[in-house]
């Protein structure tokens, strides 16, 4: 459960797509996204797509992901992937499980090369990379 919540938060910061179908967890994620939703003028649909294991399709939704990644220390204001922030979140979810930490390091290696001049698109691509790499390593369901 703890790793699942971190992975759910992870989408918001660009790590992966939500795992849980628990309504309380969905409400928690919606609450966490509210400031960024307002700041980036994203819609309820953009938030719902994240909560329902999908990606926003709008520019505003992608910018909401950027805002959340910056808020959680996974991406800098300039769009650079922040490995230390990512690993800090990953270690909270992995606990003592060495294989999960190793997988998180591999994901960080794979996704750190993502680059796009548009910071919202950069955040979206980073989120997608992290999800895809987590699925490859069986850390989350597709």
From TrEMBL:
Residues 1-18 form the signal peptide. One of its GO terms (biological process) is sensory perception of smell. It is found in: Secreted. CDD domains: PBP_GOBP (cd23992). Its main location: secreted. Keywords: Secreted, Signal. The keyword Secreted applies. SUPFAM superfamilies: Insect pheromone/odorant-binding proteins. GO terms for cellular component: extracellular space. SMART domains: PhBP. The keyword Membrane does not apply. GO terms for molecular function: odorant binding. InterPro entries: PBP/GOBP (IPR006170), PBP_GOBP_sf (IPR036728). Belongs to the PBP/GOBP family. This is Odorant-binding protein 2. It comes from Propsilocerus akamusi.
């Amino acid at each position: 459960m703890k790793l699942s919540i971190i992975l759910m938060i992870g989408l918001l910061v660009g790590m992966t797509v939500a795992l849980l179908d628990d309504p309380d967890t969905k409400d928690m994620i919606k609450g966490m996204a509210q400031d960024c939703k307002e700041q980036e003028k994203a819609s309820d649909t953009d938030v719902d797509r994240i909560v329902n294991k999908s990606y926003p399709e709008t520019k505003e939704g992608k910018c909401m992901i950027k805002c959340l990644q910056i808020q959680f220390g996974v991406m800098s204001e300039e769009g650079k992937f922040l490995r230390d922030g990512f690993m800090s979140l990953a270690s909270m979810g992995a606990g003592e499980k060495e294989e999960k930490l190793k997988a998180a390091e591999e994901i960080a290696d794979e996704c750190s090369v993502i680059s796009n001049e548009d910071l919202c698109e950069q955040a979206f691509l980073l989120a997608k990379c992290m999800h895809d790499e987590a699925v490859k390593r069986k850390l989350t369901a597709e």
